[in-house]
Amino acid sequence: MTRLLIALLFTITLSACGNSSDPAVSTVAPAPNKETHAAPPQPERKRIALVMKTLTNPFFVEMEKGARRAENELNVDLQVKTAAQETSIEQQIQIVDDMIAAKVDAIVIAPGDSQRLIPILKKALDSGIKVVNLDNRLDPAAVKQAGLSAIPFISVDNEKGAYGAVKFVAETVSKPTEAAILEGIRSADNARQRMEGAKRALAENKAITLVASESANWKIDEGYTVTQQIFAKHPNIKLIFAANDMMGLGALKYLHETGKSDVKVAAYDALAEAVAEVKAGNLILTVDQQAAEQGFQGIALAMRLLKGESVPEVLLIETRLVTSETVK
Hints:
Blueprint: H1 2-18, E1 47-52, H2 58-74, E2 77-82, H3 89-101, E3 106-109, H4 118-126, E4 130-134, H5 140-145, E5 153-155, H6 158-170, E6 177-183, H7 189-203, E7 208-215, H8 220-233, E8 237-242, H9 245-257, E9 264-266, H10 272-280, E10 285-288, H11 291-306, E11 314-316, E12 320-323
Parallel strand pairs: 1-2, 1-3, 3-4, 4-5, 5-11, 6-7, 6-8, 8-9
Antiparallel strand pairs: 10-12
Helix pairs in contact: 2-11, 3-4, 6-7, 8-9
């Protein structure tokens, strides 16, 4: 009974304390008063358009791969646009106009023509869009005449690359030999340079006579047709330099079909198909101009321009000869 009375009194005392006018004290610790800091806003990714001639030529597929690597590494919003064919100059002009309307930050372009793209690129520059020139150089005199400063250019030394390739083949020739060149699009600066480099190397060997130099417009089917036409006039040709692999593959197809296995063919671009022909012994060599690296450096240079950095007027990538010895 005594214990029950004590417990009852203790309960009454607690109730009285609870009804006190003094503020109650919570036994639960309050959550710390943390200030909420929003994550700093991420800078908006720069929108860069890569405008190429076509994707029917694997060279430009490789160029896109390099640009995609730059997209990931440099946090770029990359827009890749191409014309249907390397000769689709008007379509390429329209693509650039579309990119201006889309208000991209920069255009990195491998132009199909060295002069006809200049007016639309001037429009882009006047709109505040940065421009980088890849692969085929815009005519510097025409750029200046349009009232523009020099446009940064990334490529290889095409004259030097073609000279080295043809010299490699020409040095194997000691008896009188007829030769031919398959040129690219004649209004393209890189086509002109490769032709000049090839001619310079051929001229250094007095045993070689250049009997034909015709354009096959960078295309495999025209490479076949033009080679057929050249051999109709000059059936004794034993050496061909094709200014790109596509034309070279076209020439090889004609030579294979007609059983002309004693004709030496050199080409330019180091496409996988051409490298396979080098390994098989059908193509003497091809020139690797590192298309993927050109694509990567084009995007990187555009980003430097967008940051206000100074950039070189010309950035040359090294070429490499791909021969049966180097692909073993």
